[in-house]
Amino acid sequence: MKFMRLGSKPDTFYTVETVRSVASEVSTDIVIEVNQITFLLHKFPLLSKCARLQRLAAEARQLNKDKLELHDFPWGVEAFEICVKFCYGMTITLSALNIVAILCVAEYLEMTEDIEKGNLIVKLQVFLNSCIFHCWKDSITTLKTTKAFMPWSEDLKIVSRCIDAIASKAVVRPSKVDWSYTRNLQEKEKGTSQISANPTCDGIQNRKHDPIPIDWWVEDIADLEIDVYWRVMVAIKSTGKISHNVIGEALRVYAFRWLPGMSKEQVLTESSRGITHSYSSDYVDIATKHGHLLETIVSLLPQEKGSTSCSCLLKLLRAATILGASPSSKMELARRVGLQLEEASLNDLLIPSLSYSNETLYDVDLVQTILEHFMTQNQSPPTSPCTTQAYEKRRTRSAENLDFVESRRSTAATHSAKLKVAKIVDAYLIEIARDANLPISKFVALAEAIPDFARPVHDDLYRAIDIYLQEHPGLIKSERKRICRPLDCKKLSIEACMHAAQNERLPLRVVVQVLFFEQVRAAMAGGLGVHELPNNIKALISAPEGDSHDVAQSSSYDDGWDTLQQNVNSLKGDLAKMKMQLIEADKERRDLQQEIAKSSKSKGLRAFPSKPRKIFGKLWSSNKSSVGEKL
Description:
The protein is an alpha/beta fold. It has helices at 43-47, 51-62, 77-88, 99-108, 120-130, 136-145, 152-155, 158-170, 218-221, 226-239, 244-258, 271-278, 281-300, 310-323, 327-339, 346-349, 364-376, 390-393, 397-432, 440-448, 459-471, 477-483, 494-501, 508-525, 535-542, 548-552, 555-560, 565-587, 593-603, 610-628, and strands at residues 3-6, 13-16, 19-22, 30-34, 37-41, 68-70, 92-95, 183-187, 192-196. The strands form three sheets. It has a five-stranded mixed sheet, with helices on one face. Strands 1-7 form a two-stranded antiparallel sheet. Strands 8-9 form a two-stranded antiparallel ribbon.
């Protein structure tokens, strides 16, 4: 921190209770009362440098007053005393901590060049311009002290000049930085971060082998109050020399510094729900302050996608929910999260629901909104390289092909992102399925928001459905059918099929579908062609992905579906029996090669041993007699 000393005489001020005076052989001849503190001083040194005191002394003589009163003096007694010491020629020390208060008092007392050359105001301005505004940390320290002296510090342009000084240094290239700063050391390998302060004035020289990061300044300005911080960030952004990623990092550091619930040390648990209901005056004031802070941060977020991490955006959204931020701020954060939802983690998506009208544990509606924003981005398909516009006709074919490749590449990235989002949503469904207050409509709407191609395997979705059925045992038959509607049995793994076949919580329709598809999978693994399967099985196989449940919901199914309960156990037995017979049939394959060739020529069918074909014939006929007509 820079210092400046003025004056050469020793300090001879002394204090007796509420009276301050100067030790001198000459008796005092003027009394000034400042905020209940009485100063016994001499007219000559004071009136020769303070134009306001000259006028006040003249008015006091006319009114026969024995003292000058400066009540409600906003800059404090200490700042006034320093100005008085300057008038006496005593040594005073100026720094970033007291320069604002002293300058305000000097301006109030009108200690200008008009009344005496080399007066205090000029010397203070020299110190500001030559030292304070040239020093990074002193500029920040001075800016922080201006809040206590508003609006004088604003009217004297101290605030704006500090902001300009800070912004001009923040945009300096890291290789040019030669001043002390506080830096955020990020250990990428460990995924941790720690803050180290530079204790020396020439700290950069002590780190010759340590490159200066481009975000070296973000930690220091994070100490500012939000209103001043907003002005500093606007000034930095207006230069156009700082990348949007660094701006996003600065906002992340500030949010983690001041907002509750952003860091692990500040995580608000479910007990916060009870706090919000109590609404003590102190809590409301704090929540209002934090809400204003959050909305200001949101207004500063860069528009570019990826400038702020998805995890940080979700933490801001969590804080907005807890603090009751404005709906516009929450929707803006939800939109930004939706643009990069593939980067989200399950823990960040588990945002607590604090609404009176919503008894669910987590804010599922908000996640649904985020997912909708994700699905609606980049919906336009890639265009062909062919074009009809005149200026594009002048382009070379190679340039057009390059554009087409880039368009296809962009579409492929979107497809990959949707695959990642599908996994995240399924994991989220597994978590929220345990909530006893979660309505079926919200669960199904979230599950069906994922397109069919983005969910190639339905194992996680099946697990979520099973957990929901387990946690909600009172569901009626139609509700159990409804929650299983997004499930595609053809996309279940063998392990999931085996579990589902024995799952008594599933609707009978789903169990039968699982058994049929397992039979088909086993049959096709043994070499049986699809065209050789019964018509009802082929209908289920040929159904579009995700629509096998629609086939199961046809009217012919509904007419006699309830009568199939007694046949389910026999189907399970047939499935196990078929697997054993397929194993035996495979062992006889080599001995029956000649018979395979003859049967393939005579019947025009795919090569398959006759004995296993008879086995399948018996199985299909036995199933068809009891089930096939109704399917």
